[in-house]
């Protein structure tokens, strides 16, 4: 199966078409890249191009009588969490498990990519929405359990990640006195 071709969009960004195929086209390795509430991610090799890929096994969405679902994605660099843990300021605490681990550092630390949309939801439906987010990165409207939040909560979470980069730790570790 050939890789999906990129199709231009109105915004000029290229969007890839979804390709359906068999997991037999990939050689899985034993290295596990990560795990979360919806499944685990392993490193593999796409036989047709000999390029590394990441395969996410969606274990949490299994329904009896349905096929096993896996997502095949490009395999990129380490998470921001790993980069900070290994190259951060000496003695700085590691960032928490959730949000920084979902930001991958690519291309010699010049590019970042967001991954793990396992808890992503559509805001096309009217509120109230189910609670989302990781405690240390939650916007005030989520902490106050307001039901009418929007995509701006992601901007807050990104601000918390940036604060962690500047301070060398998670935002919740700041002194309140």
Shape: globular
Given as residue ranges, the uncertain stretches (5+ residues, pLDDT < 50) are: 1-5, 88-98, 118-123
Biggest sheet layout? 4 strands, antiparallel
**How many helices does DSSP assign?**
3
Determine the N-to-C terminus distance: 60 Å
Which percent bin holds the helix content?
A: 10-25%
CATH fold-type name of the largest domain: Transferase(Phosphotransferase), domain 1
Assess the beta-strand content as a share of residues.
Answer: 25-35%
- What's the name of the CATH homologous superfamily of the largest domain? Transferase(Phosphotransferase) domain 1
Residue-averaged pLDDT, rounded? 68
Count of distinct strands: 8
**Widest beta sheet: strand line-up:** 3-4-5-6
Protein name: [RNA-polymerase]-subunit kinase
Keywords: ATP-binding, Nucleotide-binding, Phosphoprotein
Enzyme class: transferase
Pfam family, one: Pkinase
